[in-house]
Amino acid sequence: MILLIIRMKVLSEKRMELSQTIASLIGSIRTEKGCKRCDFCQSIEDENELCLLEEWDTQKNLKSHLRSERFRVLRGAMNLLKEPYEMMFHTVFYPAGMEGIGGQSYQGRQESPKGGKEVLRFTGTESKGSEI
Fold first, then answer.
1. What are the backbone angles phi and psi of residue 111, rounded to the nearest 5°?
2. What are residue 44's phi and psi, to 5 degrees?
3. Which fold, 2-89?
4. CA 117 to each of CA 5, 33, 102, 125, 131: distance values in angstroms, whole numbers, following the listed order
5. 69-77 and 15-30 are packed helices; what angle lies between their axes, rounded to 10 degrees?
6. Helices marked H in the chain — which ranges?
7. Any idea where the domains of the chain sit in the sequence?
8. Tell me: the pLDDT tens digits for 74-106?
């Protein structure tokens, strides 16, 4: 699984325009082959900070999306930004033998392409994640 996170800081007077453009694209992005998730978020600390979170099943399907007309429209809409956007890719995989640790369900390990921390994600009643 591959996560694509796009962080954007928009000019306050252009926030509504950019938000409407992105909102109009989300439904069709979700129907693209391999898209498992596409969410559009706004920071509760700064209403001009926006984030698009996409989850893709394969690198091939993600690359197809990045070459799509929808993504070209999205990039064009990013001309409304206050500063350059930040685009991050994270590959998530599920190592063998990690199932059922401490009665929790293993969700995967996230690796940062820039050498950041690797984080194991679990779900369960007391889970907060375990760092390695």
1. -115, 135
2. -80, -15
3. Alpha-Beta Plaits (3.30.70)
4. 17, 30, 22, 24, 8
5. 170
6. 15-30, 59-66, 69-77
7. 2-89, 94-131
8. 999 888 898 889 999 998 876 666 555 554 444
